[in-house]
Amino acid sequence: MLPFETKHDKSEPTNLLSGANHQQSQTTLPPVVISLPLKLMLFVIVDGWHLIVSSLVQTYHV
């Protein structure tokens, strides 16, 4: 071992990367936080209630 090397030099990048991953995982949002509002906006934009009601009326139409 060289005089300027220490045992901790080799493990520091691993600790640094695991710390960055741990910090990033705490700030990520659950997918439902993003997907649910987008799905609701899409439902409203395509006039979802009209599509559902009209298809139900057509299936029970005699």
UniProtKB/TrEMBL annotation:
The entry's family comment says: Belongs to the FliP/MopC/SpaP family.
Task: Please name the GO terms of the biological process aspect recorded for this protein, alphabetically.
Answer: protein secretion
Name used for this protein in its record: Flagellar biosynthetic protein FliP
What are its GO cellular component terms?
A: plasma membrane
Cellular location of this protein?
A: Cell membrane
Which controlled-vocabulary keywords does the entry list? Cell membrane, Membrane, Transmembrane, Transmembrane helix
- Basic and acidic residues composition bias: which ranges? 1-12
Q: What are the Polar residues biased-composition ranges? A: 13-27
- A Pfam family that the UniProt record links to this protein: FliP
Q: Which InterPro entries match?
A: T3SS_IM_P
The organism's superkingdom is given as Bacteria
Bilayer topology annotation: Multi-pass membrane protein
Spell out the residue ranges making up region: Disordered. 1-27
